[in-house]
Amino acid sequence: MVVEVPRWLNAKMEIATKDPLNPIKQDVKKGKLRYVANLFPYKGYIWNYGAIPQTWEDPGHNDEHTGCCGDNDPIDVCETGSKVCARGEIIRVKVLGILAMIDEGETDWKVIAINVDDPDAANYNAINDVKRLKPGYLEATVDWFRRYKVPEGKPENQFAFNAEFKEFKDKDFAIDIIKSTHDYWRALVTKKTDGKGISCMNTTVFESPFQCDPDAAKAIVDALPPPCEPACTIPTDVDKWFHHQKN
Hints:
By secondary structure, the protein is of the alpha+beta class. The protein contains 4 helices and 13 strands. Strand 9 (about 95-105) and strand 10 form a beta hairpin. The mean pLDDT is about 95. Keywords: Hydrolase, Magnesium, Metal-binding.
């Protein structure tokens, strides 16, 4: 996975799919940089959050499990290990299960995984291992995703397979979903599907008409402004707690 947001941080960073070479950028809404609120008792993101490269949730595909189309992004990952990763870090993960969130009418899968280099990785082989070894973590994950947009004035998110703990599907189900999103990505990058503005520029997919010369890619990267350092100014209200009565 590619780590977009290290655990405990608030800046809503994402792979910018419409920019050449898809850099990680902070999301902007109405001209303002976006941050997730500290939705009590959670501080920022409660996992290392990111995405699996070479996947795409196709907005033209109605998912048979959720009845909703894809959200037009790579598939998301919640990495549950002990290490706080760095933004942009690429880590190998062990897939444990998956959660199907319905975000404003779109399918938004959340893969639950653990870093293969985590000291406890050998003890985690299925979604029930998370439930057993980290009691409360799966409930917190559902609660976080359900309510994290409420501070923005939006309604709570919903989930497919609703019932206590039935929201989470097992490892085999998760891998099938990942494989299907990889197939949608391959159709996208080989121009068999219209990405409608997604930049598929790449240096490694030989069958892709969007493949470019590495020197051209380097020139694009070199022309970008430097990444923001941790010392960059963060609005003071980002540290506030947001208290919300659960429905």
